[in-house]
Amino acid sequence: MGVTVLQQFPPMENRTGPQIIEFLTKRIVALGALQSGQFLVDCETYTSVPQLGPQRTVHVLHNSEQPASVFSILETGTKTIPLVADGLFDLIMMKMTGMYTPKKLIKIEAKGPRFEIGDFCVKLGTVNVSSNYKGILVEVEYRPCVVPSNCWELMREFLQGFLGSSVPSTPSPYLQSRMNEIYQPIDTIQQYLDHFTQYRKAPGAARP
Question: How confident is the model over 26-39, as pLDDT tens digits?
């Protein structure tokens, strides 16, 4: 895999989620992109029981691009610990109900069409929190590069080609901290978790 940039697409007046996806699909197809299936990234959050002391939070995520992997991010309050495991990790979490319990009604996912155009892979994700529409996430991966600082300007220009002025001039804080590092799948997961957290905290949802 290459470097991935993930960003929210702002709500559009008088347009529903499916209408925004259709609008962005037309834009990316006009550039020559071809649809190549669907994608899904989901996240479920668990919290430690009081008997374990200070609260710990475990986010468990899956990405259809890495179907054999389960990603987890443990937040202890003082530090964040990422982990990449296989499918058995889901079973382990199910058996740890005496230590960690899932937060009710806040399972979140991003899913939608996946496109390929040259060296880029573009995904248009509809974000739902417990089946309630929250917004649109756009993921762009540039496959030939594995160091963000070497391709950020190119990726930003590509994003502006179909997202316009909503593209920020600088990378996200997380990506900025990794600009000269070798990009890994867990970095994409961390970006999704950052955006999912923002959506969960948002007071309301856009039109479905």
Answer: 999 999 999 999 99
